[in-house]
Amino acid sequence: MSTTATLTSAPTSTEPVVARAAPRRVTIGGVLRVIGLGAWLLITLFPLYWIAITSLKAPGTISRFPLEYWPGELSIENYRGLFEQSNFGVFLANSAIVATTAGATATLIALLSAYVLARFHFRSRGAVLVAFLLTQMIPAFIALGPLYSMMSDLGLVDRKFGLVLVYVAISIPFSTIMLRGFFQNVPDALEEAAMIDGCSRLGALFRVIVPVMTPGIIAAFIFNFVNSWNELFLSVVLMHAESNRTIPAALNGFISTFNIDWGSMSAAAVLTILPTMVMFALASKWIVQGLTAGAVKG
Amino acid sequence: MTAASTERPAAATAGGGAPGSRRRPAFRARHGLTILAFLAPAIVFVGWFTYYPMLRGANMAFRDWNLWDLTSTPFIGFDNFATILSDPVFPTVVRNSVLWVVGSLVPQLLIGFALALALRKRFRFRGVYQALVFFPWAVSGFLIGMLFRWMFNAEFGVVNDLLGKVGLIDAPIPWLADPTLAMVAVIVANIWYGVTFFAIMILAALQSVPEEMIEAASLDGAGKVRMLFSIIIPTISMTLLLTVLLRIIWIFNFPDIIYAMTGGGPANRTHIVTTWMINFTQQGNYGLASALGLCVVGFLLVFCAFYLMAIRKADQS
Amino acid sequence: MRHLRSAVAATAGLSMIALAACSGDSGDTGDSDGTVTLQMVESLTNPDRTTLIRGLLDDFEAENPGVEVELVSPPTEQADQTIQQMLQSGSGVDVLEVRDITVGPFANNGWLYDMSGDLESWDGWDALTDNARAVAEGDGESYFLPYGFYGLSLFYRTDLVDEAGFDGPPSSWEDLLEQASAIQDPSSNTYGYAFRGGQNANSNVVAAIEAYVIDGLDTENAFLMEDGSTIFAAPEAQDALETYFALFEEASPPSAVSWGYPEMVEGFNNGSTAFLLQDPEVIATIQGSDTLSEDQWGTAPLLVGPTGRAAQPLAVAGWGVTEFSEHQEEAVALVQFLASEGPGTEFAQANSLVPPIASASDDPFYSEGPWTSYVTMTENPDTYVNVTQPRDVSWWTEWIQKSDQEIQSVLLGEMTHEELLTSWDEFWTEKYAAE
């Protein structure tokens, strides 16, 4: 399988060239670059810092002057309240189950459709692509009412399975388009060879091509996961029981008629952001690499 | 949008010639069944859970469909469209939508580009840096809206506090209560959110710029700025243009931040088309909401067509 | 056939993954063992209230073996929309929160069950107040039993009023303007009035107008005068707006343009504003305040107009049963349980509402502290006239959004008071003419 080996390294091969160490020399451009990078890092992280600090202030000190940039006493009261007064652990688990299942299923299905859309010419190919792209332009709110009726007729309201189905459907178009770009960059000689060796097409796809495309597949999965993890409106409408609630819906619940519970809200926000942030941090290399290798060549 | 599928010259394997002419045996044989079977799950899902409800929803656009009175939902032709177009709020919403898209997109593109250029060369901790600055992309729009609503809070918001500490303001600014500043605030939030996407896409595209070209140019004594405009931008222009198009569609259809921060207020000054649509659904008037949704689709289709035509023309000349 | 096989395998594999990963869902309302499961939906959701309701439901379940109640609590912002979707689909709800705003449309669409037959034999009827009975009887159909009433009263800071040199809280809108302006001191982050400029801003504007036109007001439909014209066309409405909007100009934080319920309550709660016009529900919130101590605040009756009288637009909400419920008998029993003396009083007290239960007003709970202003209002029905607003019309939500937006336009100086009144007068005149 020497072909595979060379190909796996193909996407990374662009990097070493870029990475050549320049002689250490202080230039104006270099200084600007460092300042700019530092400034943007500050701007990006400050809101996160602020929400984290807010979540660690004791209830009652949040709206107190002067504002504390580093609270005199750190308190985990907001977090304790979150888990004691609501089933936040259950909500986290629900979101994790739904987003993982929907993300994985959508990525798999998109992998199949992206494959044929990249490899074969057939009359309706353009139509399928346009139909997929069109879904990106239609505001989801049009479909909310009819979707609810349909799910209710199918007995899928208030079931994680139902929510997963809807999230899969929403995720498929974009990830298909994305993955199609990756396939176009993998030479078809690869799977031909495998098929001549006796693999079925599906076998060739999963045994030969998929390993080469790992970065792209991870990127697509994370994209789908994040979208499902964050989705609010459908989750609120389709899931009723508290035991089925997802995190965005729970967050929305901190805005009650009387007040916005900023303490609980910020604690919940931190717990919502952390998993996706960690995931993103671990995979950010692959995401850039995946996109380099695929979607946007040209 | 069809261009998106043909716009990749690098993808020679799927070249657009006559079907089968340059195909190798494995791809030339008739594969109707394979194609169908591989596509089926995707088509079933998208058709069933997206298109079917959307078409049923579109039907409401031509009916007097108000949840508060469903005793009769008569067909009323294009009345809903007429109601929307003649609504005194409509021009404001259109103006806001343009402001929202342009005001968010241009800074996102510029900052994203700068960030990508700065990240192009490897440096120590680049991986860590990347992971840190890319994270806004993973946060939901609703949550970002709430976050910035808290920071822009007039009395207890950190933005006013910081501005006051620096000495730029004497009295707290009621950000979200002022018609102009409210728009500024929601756009700032959106810029913060969207820079990442551009940075990732452009960074990815930058890696397709052959290093030899850059080296050759720098040997010729070309300055950094000239290099940017004569080599880098032309090379990745197609990616840039398509990314911009995707973002326009996406930002246009993105109500979450505004919904969470201002709900479209004050006095409709931050209502964009999609938040206005949410407004109609909250009134229970699904007829008007659907009609507005169809207007959005129609507008975006026309816009895309013109945009892609313009790109193609520029590409040929 | 290799292609077919692999394709089938792929599809089957995917469905398996999807299905396997999703097992362990909560099942349907299973009736196999004879247990009846009722689905109950609330709409004015907040965490404390949800806990309270759950406690009452547990009591109900204990009293009624074989009946289980599942409580659905959508986030307030999304609740009405969610409930409408559920009702429209015709399944999944047995008992629901019905408000004066929603009862008309819901009944009109055939979604609510008429309980009048079941109430004839209900032994809890006699325990209700007259107001509550009137609501329950409706126009001949009983679509819901009230859990309580919402009426406005003025929350004020006793210490700030004192420091500013006033003897007591304001009694009229003019007094309020005077006191609030005197207290206003932006440099020390102290403001006079927690002005409502955001969501539902219309409610307080209308309350002010009604106080000024009270002498000619149609109490059955408090948007109309006795002669059938709208209150917005009355000359006194102009004066009402002068005073009311002056409150914003002279005595409110500028950010109040976008203040809705949460911001207003928060503004009072954190000590930055001295006056707040709100429902009794807020009492519980402020009692739990971390910033205000008990002797720093009190409540006063609703503000009167120039003729010394005010209109109290009582709002009401309660529980009803859906027309399509498969367990109507049990559902009605649950609604009756919630409206009966013990649970009804408990709910109204914990939620700080004007109770629908007659005996509750004897409870010292209501004759002390923040509740005294409500007692004062109840004892002086000629000064504080209970009126009914036309909240059940099908265009009510349209009205709310329209009027809220126009109020913000006035606050931003883009619309005059006259234009506002003309616009509202035309809106209601046209809607009624089209009926």
Q: Would you give an account of this structure?
A:
- The complex is a heterotrimer of chains A (298), B (317) and C (435).
- Chain A has helices spanning 2-9, 14-18, 28-55, 77-85, 88-119, 125-135, 144-153, 160-184, 189-196, 201-212, 214-230, 233-238, 247-252, 262-293.
- By secondary structure, chain A is mainly α.
- Chain A folds into 2 domains: 26-85; 86-293, MetI-like fold (Orthogonal Bundle).
- In chain A, helix 4 (77-85) crosses helix 14 (262-293) and helix 8 runs antiparallel to helix 11 (214-230).
- Chain A starts with a helix and ends in a 5-residue tail after the last helix.
- Mean pLDDT of chain A is 82; it is low at 1-21.
- Chain B is an all-alpha fold and 317 residues long.
- The model of chain B is unreliable at 1-26 (pLDDT under 50).
- The two termini of chain B are 20 Å apart.
- In chain C, helix 9 crosses helix 10 (235-251) and helix 17 (396-411) runs antiparallel to helix 18.
- Chain C folds into 2 domains: 36-150 and 316-356, D-Maltodextrin-Binding Protein, domain 2, CATH 3.40.190; 153-313 and 381-434, Periplasmic binding protein-like II (D-Maltodextrin-Binding Protein, domain 2, 3-Layer(aba) Sandwich).
- Chain C has helices at residues 2-21, 47-63, 76-89, 100-108, 116-120, 130-137, 158-163, 173-183, 201-212, 235-251, 261-269, 281-287, 328-339, 341-350, 364-367, 372-379, 396-411, 417-434, and strands spanning 36-41, 67-72, 95-99, 145-150, 153-157, 191-193, 273-278, 297-300, 310-313, 315-321, 384-387.
- The radius of gyration of chain C is 25 Å and the shape is globular.
- Chains in contact: A-B, A-C, B-C.
- At the A-B interface, helix 2, helix 3, helix 5, helix 6 and helix 7 of A face helix 1, helix 2, helix 3, helix 5 and helix 6 of B.
